[in-house]
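Possible regression after last week's pipeline update?

I re-ran a chain I had predicted before the update to compare outputs. Posting the input and the new output here so someone can diff against the archived version. Not blocking, just want to make sure nothing changed silently.
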Amino acid sequence: MVLRKQEILAYCAAGVAFHMIASAFNFYYVKVFINHYHIEETWFQIAQTFHMVWTSVSNPLFAYIQDGSKLKISRTRRESILYCGPLFAFSFIVPWIPWGESSWLVGLHLIITFFLWDTMFTFIGLAVSSLFTEISRDTEDRIKLTRYAQMASILGGPSVMLLEFTSDSLHNFKAFQITSVCVAVCACSLFYYSGLNAHTEYDVKKIEKYELAKNSRVNVKKEPYTNQVCQIFYDRNFIAFIVSNFCHAFHKTFLNSFIAIVCDQLISEDDVPLSVRKLFYGGVSLMSTLVIITVTTFVSRYSYYYVIRSAFAYIVFAGIVMLHIGQDHPWCLMVFLLADNCASGTTFSLFNMPLADIADDNKSKYNRKHPISSTVFGISALLSKPAMSLSPMVTVSILNHYGYSELKNNTVEASHELKHAMFLLICLYPIAIGIVQLIAWSFFDIKQKTVQINVL
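New output (post-update):
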């Protein structure tokens, strides 16, 4: 299927909407529930544990629904986005409406938030990721899609910056709530446009097959879902990707959720004005996007395998350098965090390409007429998303051990030990994670295929 402008715009619209609300949710939910709602650590850990359990159910369930069921909302990727995109936008608003001050009520609020958010995040995320795989099988087309999607995400990237300035860094919570509703409405509109126009060759065949079976009342024999899952688990490339992606999800979640918390403690207003920090928080996503757009040129020339490996090597090197510089250089710390976010964002944006190649390789290996894209992306999410809960659980536990819980009411200042622990986390996380990723990524061997395609 020739990649047309309509498909590019539809995919970009879905990507912008997804990025617009996901980046804001990840940036604010920890800060809001800890600093604004004052959730107890016990309830925070319970909610995160529930999140991991529900993730283990939702990912394979929705992957099966999208790849194997005959429900109208999941017959095509386009219809999945059309019908469930508005629900995803609604789930973004839920955490910003307080339910009460009781500790159990705040804890229940976070649990329900995770349930609604992860349900829609998973369903729409699988649909958008599968759309990337199925719009085109050509590597250059996929690179082009990545580049255009990042260009378009510049429109959605500043959502954090917008929320920072309108709410005065959450000091005006009412303004934060109003702006969040506006962001959700914009995302809903973009999902609707994508749902109307995101057609793929596979979706056309899928609808024709469904209508034929419906009219003739013939049951089409389907391969057992357990067989598909086992085939994916036996794929060495998939295992290598999962280890790398799990570490990346842990690192990226830490950066998204704790960068504002850490900078507020390690960087004083005397060193860096608050207005500059607001610009920094909002500009991190934008700068990451610009870097990704630039990097896609190197992906065309050297393949995504080598670009991702270089990003892993960089975060190890940068972490060691920052550890040597020390925490008493706030501007160096901000540059380091900005570069670390850019490297992490670049890797995240390119991770759709190896998964798409894994889905294509699986289709060829087992002679399928249609790639099981949702199953591949769903199993990947199932194994990597627990890191998104583990990261805040581990980090909050470490910070509270050094007295962070005493800062909730702004009655005391952070101790030297707490600040030093925050600095060590900033440096040691990328060092340890990057080393594991480099080792795991060395076992990914579809790179040979990718290099060959890029050269032709």
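Follow-up from reviewer: compared with the archived run. The CA atoms of residues 7 and 250 lie 32 Å apart. Marking as no regression found.
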